[in-house]
Amino acid sequence: MTGDVTKWVYAFREGSREMRDLLGGKGANVADMTRLGLPVPPGFTLTTAACITYLGEGRVFPPGLGEQIAAHLAALEADAGKRLGDADDPLLVAVRSGARDSMPGMMDTILNLGLNDQSVEGLAATTGNPRFAFDSYRRFIQIYAAVVCGVDKHHFEAALDALKVDRGARLDVDLDADDLRGLTDTFIGIFQQHMGEAFPQDPRLQLDGAIRAVFASWETRRAYDYRRLHGIPHDLGTAVNVQRMVFGNTGDRSGTGVAFTRDNATGEPGRPFGDFLMNAQGEDVVAGIRTPRPLAELADVLPEAFAELMETMGHLERRYRDMQDVEFTIEDGRLYMLQTRNGKRSAFARVRIAVDMVDEGLVTEDEALRDLVVCAQVPQLLLPQLDSEGVTLAGLIPLAHGVNASPGAAVGAIVLTADEAERRGHAGERVILVRDETTPDDLHGMIAAQGIVTARGGKTSHAAVVAVGMGCPAVCGVETLRIDGDLVTIGDTVLAVGDLITIDGTNGAVYAGEAPVTAPDPFNPYLMRILEWADRARVLRVRANADTPDDARRARQFGAEGIGLCRSEHMFFSAERVPLVQAMIMSDDDAERERLLALLRPFQVDDFMGIFREMRGLPVTIRLLDPPLHEFLPSLLDLRLRAAANEREGICDPELDAQRARVTELHEENPMLGTRGVRLGLEFPEIFRMQAGAVMQAAIAVRDETGEAPVVEIMIPLVAYEQELRAAREMVLDEVERVRATSDGAHIEVLVGTMIELPRAALTSGDIAREAEFFSFGTNDLTQTTLGFSRDDAEKGFLGMYLRSNLLPNNPFETLDVDGVGRLIRIAAEGARPVRPGIKLGLCGEHGGDPASIMFCHDMGLDYVSCSPYRVQMARIAAGQAALNGAHGVSPSD
Ligand code: PEP
Ligand code: MG
Q: Residue 67: its pLDDT value, please?
């Protein structure tokens, strides 16, 4: 090969485990196993670069690839002493996909390649086993037709089923050689009928076709979906492994299986487990056509091969220092290893294996934290989960799917209003609140419910944000959900209020009746060990978003180092306060507003005291009132309908007319861009004043009660201009000082800062920093305002389509848009630091609980992230991993 031609193909013995990017996980590991002298059938790997080049250049082989395949094939043939597809004694190969990150079952694999009408006879003759030869050929025709040529595999399955019925055979293995010979003829006929041409007989053409198909399988819908779900980039490509076939279907001393080195559900060590089938090929095990046998039984069937497999698995686990998932084939009693990879496992298994491997001396604590813990799985440890095995055993089928808005499973009776949820919930009943959508008025019902289902809304919809915050499972955006009186239709099923349903917020499914659920342990001892390692490693602090004393207590239990966001408006929404708040907003009389605020103030003082008590010694950031006005107002539509009805019936209701006039006056077409945050505070200064005074009063009271001064931070939301912040800050400080003057409040320090939620604030952060003692990036709004995507509507509309069609790699409301929003954060941080050295910078949008976004925050040198209490443990781990990994390259590109 000349120096200027790219090397697209590597023999297994040329590769190494460090070459995952180029050879894919499977290629790198078979190369490694080959070097270790393990029994791996020989072969070669086409690189991921070959795949990307092939896909990017109109699906033609790049220069040199064809020749390199030919050279490696010739070497493989020389090694085997057989030629691919030879009529007398054929070499057969498997063509397997294998990307850098394992994507089990997502891409294609073709076995038994090289068989044709002649070579099948040769195989039958040399092995003396015509049954095996024709079994292999019929499998090859079917898989080649389906994968390479797109013929529906059901045509072949139907023919196989028909043959079994005809022969009175229950299983494939009950068919004899003649049956299978006849079946290959039938299959070839099916191929001819659908393709209008004969089944390809030239082995080299077969090989090229298979390679093209495996390259192309990188771009199937399911491969895209899988990558999106697991955060795998779309531009990596898959490698292709061409490997000499070994046969698990040559008879009673042959078989094939998959095995894990530890229990992947519980993590229990010393219990390798798996499935195998005798006289079968790989796809029989995974496809579930025949029921596989538990691995332990292999010890009785083929003890020597079993012993060798156990030894090899132990060796591989020690070498890769992670639980391995292997694929093996036994041909006439001889063991072959086809693949090893780090195994997928449950959240419970994951934390246990990480700790056990440290205790076994296989890895250090830092290595275990960095390599063996997947922090996105951590929240699953805290929630009851649907017991998926139990669901399968019970044969339960979901009624519908929606957005998996808040993880965990919940069972309860359908209720349709928040009041009913509260009433029945307080009476000890388990209820699921089912709504078209939820509004802040539903909060009390949401608190009382086990779970929430809505017809509309996505992951950052109000229901979802609140539910995640409460650790309450939720499924949102169930499009087939209809509420009609007391009846609820979900999919095709009509249910009534009081009927039991189960929701799976982890996967977005809704079931009728009670599905089995597993209970969590919030202080899993393995997780506690991992958290110690993470806390030692990390520099980023982790706070919680918490609005109530209960939330605050929970946050502290989970290790929060303060409250980064207390949304003070949540305190306005409880049932007895809403009428006061509404009357206050509706009033156009300043004195009346003051009077109503004075009635609300004791509630606020109480709320803040509860939180300060729980968070003793730790900072608490209280965000002054933020939501759009309309969330406090009666519906204009309702008022109009009632007025129209009055008019029809000649009823005169001046109070209703006045209400309607006021709501019309306050009505905004774009409330999210309207009278919110600091604008509301400047328009109704008495609200911010009341809140600031209540904060200070509560702080003094708690200091007097406990002897320890709360650490108070007051935060002004939705600031665009330095002038807005200055005015609001003066007002707040004025009130703080006024209350301080009424008591010995000298030792209570109050910082006043702002949220950065608007691009203008980020771009002019130097000016803003003059008025702010801290910044907290409100990335929910900053994403909304940077992208111009409505956080309430985008997910249920075009954003869903963008994600489904891979226009965007992930949801920017979940994972920070590093290049856009992230760049604004960097500009804001860089602009503020020279003006106010050491300014405290935090982030409190939903992204504060997202591992990739936490890495970004670490890279930007932020001081803390703040997230839902239920995500605090995960965020501690993500911050620890970020510190161990150093620079991640997640900074916005310049
Ligand atoms: C934000 O905008 O990121 C934020 C935390 O505030 P809210 O979600 O309450 O608007
Ligand atoms: Mg906001």
A: 96
Pair of tokens at residue 655 = 């109070």
Supply the residue whose CA is at minimum distance from atom 4 of ligand 1: 778
Kindly state if the Cβ of 461 falls inside 6 Å of ligand 1: no
- Among protein residues, the one with the nearest Cα to ligand 1's atom 10 is 781
What one-letter code names the amino acid at 116? N
pLDDT at 441: 64
CA angle 423, 385, 290 (to 5 degrees): 140
Which backbone phi and psi does 360 adopt, to 5 degrees? -80, 0
Ligand 2 center to 781 CA (angstroms): 5
Give the pLDDT score at 346.
Answer: 73
Q: Which residues contact 110 (CB under 8 A, 6 or more apart)?
A: 94, 95, 96, 140, 143, 144, 147, 148, 210, 213, 214
Residue 714's contacts (CB-CB under 8 Å, 6 or more residues apart) are 621, 622, 624, 692, 695, 732, 736, 750, 751, 752, 753
> Of all protein residues, whose CA lies closest to atom 6 belonging to ligand 1?
778
Number of the ligand closest to the Cα of 623: 1
Query: How many whole angstroms separate alpha carbon 724 and alpha carbon 732?
Result: 12
Whole-angstrom distance, CA of residue 556 vs CA of residue 543: 9
**Ligand number with the minimum distance to the CA of 846:** 1
Helix, strand, or coil (residue 734): helix
Q: Cα separations (Å) of 635 from 595, 656, 807?
A: 24, 12, 37
Predicted confidence at residue 440, as pLDDT, reads 57
User: What number does the ligand 1 atom closest to the CA of 845 have?
Assistant: 3
pLDDT, position 469: 60
Kindly tell me the burial class for residue 617, based on how many C-beta atoms sit within 10 Å of its own C-beta (0-12, 13-18, 19 or more).
Answer: exposed
Q: Residue 87: what are its φ and ψ, rounded to 5°?
A: -70, -30
Residue 202: how many CA atoms within 13 Å on its side-chain side? 4
In the structure encoding, which two tokens stand for residue 680, read together? 């509301």
Angle at 665 between CA 461 and CA 660, to 5 degrees: 90
- Is residue 462 lining ligand 1, measured as CB closer than 6 Å? no
Please calculate the CA angle 671-771-568 and round it to the nearest 5 degrees.
Answer: 45
Going edge to edge, which strands form the sheet with 324-331? Answer: 293-294, 273-278, 255-260, 324-331, 334-342
Query: 861 CA distance to ligand 2 centroid (A)?
Result: 22
The pLDDT value recorded for residue 264 is 74
Mean pLDDT by 10 residues, the chain (894 residues): 78 95 96 96 97 95 96 96 94 95 78 95 93 93 94 90 86 84 96 95 96 93 73 90 92 90 83 83 56 85 95 95 93 95 82 96 96 86 80 85 84 94 90 84 81 79 63 86 94 94 91 87 90 98 95 95 93 80 85 91 94 96 89 83 88 87 87 92 94 96 94 98 98 95 80 98 98 98 96 85 84 96 98 97 97 96 96 96 74 46
Amino acid identity of residue 542, one-letter, is: V
Tell me what pLDDT residue 745 has: 58
Residue to mutate (ligand 1; options 565, 821, 862; most atoms within 8 A of CB): 565
CA distances from 868 to 215, 417, 499, 553, 707 (A): 42, 25, 31, 12, 29
Percent over 90 (pLDDT), the chain:
66
Residue 504 to residue 507: CA distance in whole angstroms: 6
| Pairwise CA distance, residues 271 & 264, whole Å | 10
Nearest to 424 by CA among 402, 404, 445, 451: 445
